[in-house]
Prior knowledge:
Elements (H helix, E strand, L loop, with lengths): L12 H9 L8 H14 L4 H5 L2 H7 L5 H5 L3 H7 L9 H21 L2 H6 L6 E3 L13 H12 L7 H10 L3 E2 L6 H13 L3 E3 L4
Parallel strand pairs: 1-2, 1-3
Helix pairs in contact: 2-7, 2-10, 9-10
Amino acid sequence: MCQRCPxxxxxxxxxxxxxxxxxxxPVYDDQTLFExxxxxxxxxxxxxxxxxxxxxxxxxxxxxxxxxxxxxxxEQDQLRLQNDAGIIRNKLKIAATINNAQRFIAVxxxxxxxxxxxxxxxxxxxxxxxxxxxxxxxxxxxxxDALSKDLKKRGFKFIGTTIMYAYLQATGLINDHSQDCYRxxxxxxxxxxxxxxxxxxxxx
Length: 204
């Protein structure tokens, strides 16, 4: 039996699949980065699993995470979404998602891609943690602080530093698989094969 991260509830097969296949894998595709931005900002005040279970609901509600379409959503769309049981029906979060789509496009126009903008915050090197127990896991970092501050300046909503740290973990700019989790070494091996640079950020 594979050893996995201490935060993972292994009784939930869909959670295990997410951990094993997606969490911590470097993402460079803007559409996927936008998807996780929607999902992580929706998580504010809730558990990630609550959002993960509604992922297909969000995909349906937000045009398969097409940023150009979401950016053009109207007040009528917002009212429709507030009655959509497939997502978190929070008026402020729904409005923030549409706003963030517009801001996301502005970043793309300025930097060529959102990916380029985002990866600049880690100097295009995956930040690899060396955590052993749940108690050691941080919820923020200097990178998430800087990213949150800059996104707020650009007009994004629901992107506090804790949300941004979770976003960086999910999209693989931070690899926070625990030291005894089998995925940590698998990802390190993948970096070597794919020529992805990385650095250990809290090596003992």
